[in-house]
Amino acid sequence: MLFAEAQGSGGSGFPSLLLIVGAFVLLYFMMIRPQQRRRREVQNMQSSMGVGDEIITVGGLYGTIREIDDESVLLEIAPGVTARYAKAAIGKVNQKAATVDEDETEAEPEADEPAPGSKPKSVD
């Protein structure tokens, strides 16, 4: 009987079609798009890891990267103790390794030599 009433109403199916399309659009913006953004961020983080970086695994283990290959990393989890983990198991790069430029180390004057243009200290 309900089927007969739905058939006999003669109304268009446009509002119900609009409701279904709206549900898919909402699903895309609420679930699919944020998941893609998180996946992209994780891939960028994993590709930018380097030797010496301090990381945290998804299991909560802290370690320092000692070696990296395409699919895994070798972590030093304690002095002299290393373990190999899959790159996907790295949850967060806690601290990037410090990079020292050669220009910065050469720019610092030595303590024994006076700075250019200054008077040398007299020795009494």
Can you characterise this structure?
This protein has helices at residues 2-8, 14-47, 102-107, and strands spanning 54-57, 62-68, 72-78, 81-86, 90-95. A hairpin with a 2-residue loop joins strand 3 (72-78) and strand 4 (81-86). It is 38% helix and 24% strand. It has a 5-stranded antiparallel β-sheet with strand order 4-3-2-1-5, covered by helices on one side. The protein has 124 residues and is α+β, with helices and mostly antiparallel strands.
The residue-averaged pLDDT reads 79
Q: From the helix content, strand content and strand pairing, which structural class follows? A: alpha+beta
Task: Write down the secondary-structure element order.
Answer: HHEEEEEH
Strand content: 15-25%
Q: Which residue ranges are poorly predicted, with pLDDT under 50 across at least 5 consecutive positions?
A: none
| Termini separation | 117 Å
Total DSSP E strands: 5
The number of helical runs is 3
Gyration radius (Cα, Å) is: 31 Å
Shape: elongated
Main-sheet strand order equals 4-3-2-1-5
The percentage helix is: 25-40%
Sheet with most strands? 5 strands, antiparallel
